[in-house]
Amino acid sequence: MPVPFKRAITLFLICFLPLWGISQGNPADSLQQELASHTAKDSVRANLLVKIAGSMTYSEPQGAFPYVEEAISISKTLDWTKGEALALRQKGHLHYVMADELNALDAYQSALQLSHAMQDKELESTLISNIGNIYADLKQYDKALENYESYLAFAESTGNINEQIKGLSNIAIVYNDTERYTEGVAYLEKALALAKEEGNELFVAAITNNLALAYKKLEQYPKALEHYQDAAVLAHTIGNKYIEASALNSIGIVNILVGNYDAASEVGQKALELSQEIEAVEWQADSWKVLSEIYEHDGKMTEALEAYKNHVRLQDSVLSEEKKMELTRKEMQFQMERQQAVADEEIKRQQLVKNGYLAGAVVLALISVAGYFVYKRRRDALEKKKVAEFNAKVAETELKALRSQMNPHFIFNSLNSISDFISKKDVKQADDYLVKFAKLTRSILENSEKKWISLEEDLELMELYMQLESLRLENKLHYSIVVDESIDPDNTLVPPMILQPFVENSIWHGIAKRTTDGTIDITIKNEGDMLLCVVEDNGVGRSKKVPQEEHKSSLGVKITKNRIDIINHLKNTKGSIAMIDKEMGLRVELKLPLELQF
């Protein structure tokens, strides 16, 4: 199948330049013989199959596919990733030559995935360049340029001159196609310098021909003509009729542009003969146009008309082919965009699934954390409850112990008083005291197991106690008990004998030291949710105590303080004891939580 000039030159520069020398030597027969003698399904056979397909790329691309498919099959069986990638790349070349860009792109991308997995940077870079060719054909020049620049960067990093030449030429072609001729020329000049250093005449001829085209577009006709002539001579020397025919046609066109019709006539006829020989329809059309203008200039109107008819006929054929190619290109672009849309949707779907899994994991983690905290909180609450119950039991036990300590203490003091009466041989007083003491002791014993008793009962006990102490002090003790009207003594509860230690202290350490009568006043008031109990005396006060008693604290007072601390702990209240020194005597303020029976 004839290959159009523009596609042939592009492929020559980009894809198959390493294969050109092989194809010129017609290696198909020797490769076929070698393949026939090697029947084992191994990597050697797979490599031979790829080489044979490569040698058939221009001459028989359709017939090369069975070789490529067998190479892919063998490579997959052997799990030889490199072989599979090379075979897929060659398959892409075959599709590309046959203008099937969509299947070419699919093969290139499959090979690119394998090369990326192998981390074969060299193979990966060539495939990137091949994909760049397809983007260039689709006129997606930005993507093509991006691929070519990546390819060139790798070639420069590895010091591969031949690959650098290809990369520079590819970039130049994109610049020329987008009419950025000055930039295109710069890249072509770099590529030409490298090609000359390498002594690669084929490269030099092709690049020189492209340089001439760029200079012609820039209307620098002398430079263009010079480069076309150099390209034609070199192409003839190496026997490359494609480049030679292209260069000769262009020489004719430039000579007409500068008005040198004699030179144009000479090369125009030769260009036509070469174009017909290689069956390049587009170049034949260009040759006939050159000859038509020459004939017209020379006054040969009949020949000019005939030449122009040939040009139009062939040009229509080329245009028809180009229209088909444009339709194919648009169809391919549409399919690529559709495939890309499907791929994007699949990516979105996978992302949604991934996000769903992630969200589920996060929710599960949050539920686990929340569950742990709920469990911990419940466990801590149970622990606190157990601790509180235990502390309550301990506190209650301590309270009972304190009550049991206080009662013997009071009894001890009372017995001392009775002993005092007996020592004074005051039998009647001792008898009266003993009666009152028995009554008081019975009440104390009855209340010893109670946590709370009514305020009325407790004050009666205090009054009975103060009567006993008044007897002991020969009636020099006077007392008063005042309860605020807002308080119901029968309904208000207090701990048993809670005031007794303070009354006792007032008597023994305050009133008893006086030389005259003394007074104790008990006042009960309501302060919000607290009950204020005041015991006030006009005794000698704490500052008037005898030295040996100054550091001796009342056991009853200490016990009462402990009792209030326990009540505060159990009921979460702020009960307190305050002792206030007066000018004469002591004032004790006792605050208890207000506790009601009903």
Topology:
Layout: H1 5-14, H2 17-24, H3 28-37, H4 43-55, H5 65-78, H6 81-97, H7 101-118, H8 121-137, H9 141-158, H10 161-177, H11 181-198, H12 201-217, H13 221-238, H14 241-257, H15 261-277, H16 281-297, H17 301-423, H18 427-447, E1 453-454, H19 455-472, E2 477-483, E3 492-494, H20 500-511, E4 518-527, E5 530-537, H21 555-571, E6 576-581, E7 586-593, E8 595-596
Parallel strand pairs: 2-4
Antiparallel strand pairs: 1-3, 3-8, 4-5, 5-7, 6-7
Helix pairs in contact: 3-4, 4-5, 4-6, 5-6, 6-7, 6-8, 7-8, 8-9, 9-10, 10-11, 10-12, 11-12, 12-13, 12-14, 13-14, 14-15, 14-16, 15-16, 16-17, 17-18, 17-21, 18-19, 19-20, 20-21
Transmembrane segments: 356-375
GO molecular function: phosphorelay sensor kinase activity
TPR repeats: 125-158, 245-278
Provide a short characterization of the protein structure.
The protein is of the alpha+beta class and 598 residues long. It is 73% helix and 8% strand.
Structure description:
The protein has 598 residues and is α+β, with helices and mostly antiparallel strands. Among the domains are: 231-328, Serine Threonine Protein Phosphatase 5, Tetratricopeptide repeat; 394-596, Histidine kinase-like ATPase, C-terminal domain (Heat Shock Protein 90), CATH 3.30.565.10. 73% of the residues lie in helices and 8% in strands. It has helices at residues 5-14, 17-24, 28-37, 43-55, 65-78, 81-97, 101-118, 121-137, 141-158, 161-177, 181-198, 201-217, 221-238, 241-257, 261-277, 281-297, 301-423, 427-447, 455-472, 500-511, 555-571; strands at residues 453-454, 477-483, 492-494, 518-527, 530-537, 576-581, 586-593, 595-596. A 5-stranded mixed sheet has the order 2-4-5-7-6. Strands 1-3-8 form a 3-stranded antiparallel sheet. A hairpin with a 2-residue loop joins β4 and β5. α10 (161-177) packs parallel to α12 and α12 (201-217) runs parallel beside α14. It starts with a helix and ends with a strand. Residues 1-25 and 544-553 have low confidence and may be disordered. The chain crosses the membrane at residues 356-375. One of its GO terms (molecular function) is phosphorelay sensor kinase activity. It comes from Flagellimonas alvinocaridis.
